[in-house]
Amino acid sequence: MNYIIITGASKGLGEGIALELLHESHHLICISRGKSEKLEKLAAAKNCPITFISFDFGVTQDIPELAGMIFEQIPLDKASGVYLVNNAGVLHPVGRAEDCSPWEMEQHMRINLVAPMLLTSAFIRHTNGWKMEKRVINISSGAAQNPYHGWSSYSTSKAGIDMFTRCIGTEQEDQEYPVEIMAVAPGIIDTEMQEAIRATTEEQFIHRQKFVELKESGQLVPPRVAGKHLAKLLFSSEFSNGGIIDIRDSY
Predict the structure, then answer these.
(1) Lowest CB count within 10 Å: 38, 92, 152, 156, which one?
(2) Is 154 an annotated catalytic residue?
(3) Domain assignment of residue 8, yes or no
(4) Within a domain: residue 193?
(5) Is the confidence at residue 100, as pLDDT, over 80?
(6) Residue range of the domain that includes 38
């Protein structure tokens, strides 16, 4: 049985990834603030074990406890592989840095950067010595490489994810049973985050009209399509430890 942990799995890209991983040989452990009824019903229809854990990733001090709950679901004697997809994230605050509230900026970094760092750390610690495939995918963004006016928090958090991924990749190189890790930019996905972008003002985000046009011209990628590519990469022989990739060219 492969045990696959997916954060932010109740909607959007996380749900899209989970839908592509529904299989009787997979046990999905989905962590988010809510449940996906669609995911739950399809999992039952496909005889795929699924566990939902309700958690707010803004409360980072509780992540060690969360990790304990996750690994209670993973019996070592039945696991052939264990995987983590750090997908949960937020866009706000959007606007010039001096106009964003300190609390929103701090909360953003907790959810987008600190939480996946802590969960990855716990994943490595809990699986230390496990003789099986162990992989982590961190969801990044093109914004990690390109500064956007109004996205100082988002671009910074995703750049941090990329560097964290590189560092963990380096640290795992000398391990007998390493955890492999990659950061993946999935492109512009048709999610609630895109709705939030279109709901901003030009003053907050000067590139707003570009994203409105992408929606109107049908250029946003459906979550299920992106999910298919990410699910494939998770088990691929092309998985490159410490790698940072953009999968938009594969759509």
Answers:
(1) 38
(2) yes
(3) yes
(4) no
(5) yes
(6) 2-188+222-250
The pLDDT value given to residue 250: 65
Q: Please, what is the Cα angle at 188 between 139 and 96, to 5 degrees?
A: 85
CB 111 within 8 A of CB 58: yes
* CATH number for position 25: 3.40.50.720
Alpha-helical regions (H) of the chain:
12-20, 37-45, 63-71, 102-109, 115-126, 152-172, 192-198, 208-216, 223-234
Domains contained in the chain, number:
1
Structure tokens at 169: 């990749």
pLDDT number for residue 251: 60
Question: Which amino acid does the sequence have at 41?
Answer: K
Terminal-residue alpha carbon distance, the chain: 29
Whole-model pTM: value is 0.93
pLDDT tens profile 141-195:
999 999 999 999 999 999 999 999 999 999 999 999 999 999 999 988 877 777 7
Please name the residue that has the structure tokens 């990855």. 120
CB contact at 8 A, 124 and 118:
no
Which residue among 3, 83, 154, 177 is the active-site one? 154
pLDDT tens-digit map of 113-137: 999 999 999 999 999 999 999 999 9
- 12-20 vs 37-45: helix crossing angle, rounded to 10: 0
